[in-house]
Recover the amino acids of this structure.
């Protein structure tokens, strides 16, 4: 079993890191994962800001009001309720949640990937990040049962997003999609940063 796990980790290391003669360590893998999610979070912030900038002031106000009353598709994933629970969560739990959040965007990210060059980067970068997090999970799980809430209902990812919509409805859906993507990438960045910090016992991982 250990030999099989090692083979899986080694194979994923090649995919995630590329060919490299440098030793593969948890610290290095965490650093790469954090760098990649930081890039996605900044990209999400930029896309959302650009979209908001294209709206009229009243449109921004109305959309923000609606969004505050709505939910993101990924809200079915159980996450820490605050920074204190995040800090108390195990490394494996934070990795598991991060994996689920990234996975939840595999389908809806397709609608974010059209048009400008930054948008085209989203889907492949999400796939790279997902593989990297899986690699970290394999290296840290020690036989633990991963995804213990796998029986939780899996919501159809923005199932009606691709239906024909009126202009106002399409505007609202785009706003929600970009706002939720930004929110979820911020969560993943936070969870991976805290998990990485745990590698150093002397580090202060306060959020």
């Amino acid at each position: 079993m250990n030999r099989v796990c090692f083979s899986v980790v080694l194979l994923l290391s090649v995919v995630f890191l590329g060919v490299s003669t440098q030793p593969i360590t948890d610290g290095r893998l965490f650093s790469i994962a954090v760098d990649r999610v930081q890039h996605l979070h900044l990209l999400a912030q930029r896309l959302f800001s650009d979209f908001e900038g294209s709206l009229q002031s009243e449109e921004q106000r109305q959309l923000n009001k609606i969004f505050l009353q709505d939910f993101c598709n990924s809200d079915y994933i159980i996450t820490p309720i605050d920074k204190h629970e995040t800090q108390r969560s195990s490394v494996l739990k934070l990795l598991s949640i991060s994996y689920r959040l990234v996975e939840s965007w595999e389908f809806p990210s397709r609608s974010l990937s059209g048009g400008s060059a930054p948008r085209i980067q989203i889907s492949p970068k999400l796939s790279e990040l997902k593989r990297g997090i899986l690699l970290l999970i394999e290296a840290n799980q020690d036989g633990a049962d991963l995804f213990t809430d796998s029986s939780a209902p899996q919501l159809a990812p923005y199932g009606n997003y691709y239906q024909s919509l009126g202009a106002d409805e399409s505007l609202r859906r785009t706003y929600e999609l970009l706002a939720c993507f930004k929110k979820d990438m911020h969560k993943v960045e936070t969870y991976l940063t805290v998990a990485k910090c745990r590698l150093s016992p002397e580090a202060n991982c306060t959020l």
Summary: Confidence is low (pLDDT under 50) at residues 1-15, 17-23, 148-157, 159-165. DSSP finds eight helices and no strands in the chain. Helices lie at 2-17, 26-53, 57-68, 83-88, 91-103, 117-120, 122-140, 167-197.
